[in-house]
Amino acid sequence: MKEFYFKCIVCEHEFEKKDVEYTCPLCGENLEVMYEYKKIKKNFSKKNLSKNNNKTIWRYIDLLPVEDNNVLTKIQLYNSPLIRSINVSQIVGIKNLFFKDDTKLASGSLKDRASAIVVAYGLQNNKEKIVTASTGNAGCALACISAMVGIRPEIYVPHTAPLNKLIQMTVYGAKIYKVEGSYDDCYDKVLNLCLEDKKYFNRSTGINPFTREGKKTVSLEIWEQMSYTVPDIIFVSIGDGNIISGVWKGFKDLYELGLIEKLPILIGVQSKLSNAIFLTLKKIEQKFYSNKNKKYSKSIKEILQNTKIQKVEAKTVADSISVNFPRDAYAALKSIIESGGYVIEVDDTKIINSIKTLASKEGLFCEPAAATSFAGMMEVVKYSDEIKNKTVVVLITGHGLKDVKTIMASYKNLSS
Ligand SMILES: Cc1ncc(COP(=O)(O)O)c(C=O)c1O
Ligand SMILES: [Zn+2]
């Protein structure tokens, strides 16, 4: 078993595995998985990767907190393609524009990466039951990966979750609980369940430090697919903020291992109708950022310790990123600030139009939450000429057939 320990995202204290259940014992915030990078360096190298024919997530086993045993062979989660834009790149004038197409993963969303690690870790550490709160995709992903290993997970979804996602979970064989409330209500229910009954392993986003470890594999793939280079800018849709912090963790790990010399700038994108992280970052900038010196006046630790996450009443049509209180907000903010990036917010109508553009110009059909990152890129390119000379990756996180209600309603012949 690879050695790892935990570090708190906010107070930065470090803990041994045995001293932690889910979150920081001192301040209660989310934890990050840390490795003895010097020891990993020997195995995790460009040379070894180039000789490795395993095209599943386990090609990165040396940088993941799970053991190499028969559980892993059952979880066949293959890598996703990095697609060079042909048509949109010409329209917007970004020569090196790529889409990381996670709609092609097993259950059709990036969440499969997180569920693979959580299920593997759970089974290898005697967790009897796995449960999650989900807006939909995390549940589909957990159900799909659980089916591969022959267990039945429990999934708490808001009653508004898209039908297609419910169908997916049902067919994979999961036990579904529809909650008459929001995603945030589901989250609290699962939290309480896991406090009362220790047989449950809580996969919910944020609280479980292993989801970020799974999501980071998207960055490891991008790095390999770009011939061991790093894009200048990555656009990421934000709900809870776990994907964007996972993207950052992947590149940070590569940096710690001495495999890359620069890090990408992360641009987070939210809907204007679910913009908690956008608003929180604005507050941080007002308080701690000096436009004159072009830098923050306090360390990231001080900034986070003195910042309250802004709650909102989320109402976006992009169901997967409709979140009142983001559960990995500090990690997201830390990643964005460390990367020198920022967050933008976009209208829901622009999100829906982005689905159409991406599908009709590139043959890539994604759900509203996934098109949000693309909508953000389309906005930035309007006011930044600088971006046109950069290598840009837009993360496409979920398949279009998962959530069709809004897109159907926007076509007269489909909605009548
Ligand atoms: C398709 C899709 N995109 C983006 C996100 C946002 O990820 P996060 O909640 O980690 O910010 C989600 C989360 O459910 C998602 O399902
Ligand atoms: Zn802490």
What report would you give on this structure?
This protein has 416 residues and is an alpha/beta fold. The chain has a domain at 82-108 and 211-409: Rossmann fold (3-Layer(aba) Sandwich). 41% of the residues lie in helices and 16% in strands. The strands form four sheets. Strands 4-5-15-10-11-14 form a six-stranded mixed β-sheet. Strands 8-7-6-9 form a four-stranded parallel β-sheet, sandwiched between helices. Strand 10, helix 11 and strand 11 (265-271) form a beta-alpha-beta unit. Helix 5 (111-124) crosses helix 6 (137-149). The protein is globular. The termini are far apart. The model has no long low-confidence stretch (mean pLDDT 96).
Please outline what is shown here.
The chain is 41% helix and 16% strand. By secondary structure, it is an alpha/beta fold. The strands form 4 sheets. The protein has a 6-stranded mixed sheet. A 4-stranded parallel sheet has the order 8-7-6-9, sandwiched between helices.
